[in-house]
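Researcher: Next sequence.
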Amino acid sequence: MGKVRTMTSHFVKIQADKRVGLARIAKHDAYLVHEEPDGTLVYEPASAITETERKLLQDTELMTQSHFLQRGQNSSLLPRVTHLEVA
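Model: Next structure:
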């Protein structure tokens, strides 16, 4: 059986200047926020990367080259490769 996750709700009041204080409940330093069709705001933990990194990560051919994987093996942005076939 999988883990059971419990959700904790917090009442957050929007201030007059349309700001929200999350200091008591935020566990991360940055969030990407999107609004659902029903008006629900969803805060997703996020981090920023450069445009170059984004383009690099989207290049699947480059991501599978062993030279690149060996140099970046310690990066948390890279997928972990357990098997790589070389022709």
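Model: The chain has a mean pLDDT of 78. The radius of gyration is 20 Å.
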